[in-house]
Design brief:
Blueprint: H1 2-14, E1 16-23, H2 44-50, E2 57-59, E3 62-67, E4 72-80, H3 81-85
Antiparallel strand pairs: 1-4, 2-3, 3-4
Length: about 90
């Protein structure tokens, strides 16, 4: 049983996939409130504070990646392929 558990841990660690959650354009309304239920932000101010030091970060489990050419922040979360199968 130990080998099965070790194998599951290996699969989960090595086979991470990203789930797209949205971007900075469609996740906030005109008042600056966060309308995306998957994001940990209350509003655009909290988001701005999170990315103030670095555009590519992980914040409260959400991966934020910045595309300089498009000037868009995209939001992802890690999901394990193994959890989809097991």
């Amino acid at each position: 049983m130990k080998y099965i558990n070790d194998f599951k841990k290996f699969i989960i660690k090595e086979n991470l996939d990203m789930e797209y959650l949205g971007n900075c354009i469609d996740s906030f309304d005109m008042n600056g409130d966060c309308v995306n239920p998957y994001l940990p932000f209350i509003d655009v101010n909290e988001f701005a504070c999170a990315v103030e030091e670095n555009d590519n970060i992980t914040y409260k489990g959400i991966i934020i990646q910045y595309d300089k050419e498009k000037d868009i922040h995209s939001f992802f979360r890690e999901i394990s392929i193994a959890t989809k199968i097991i």
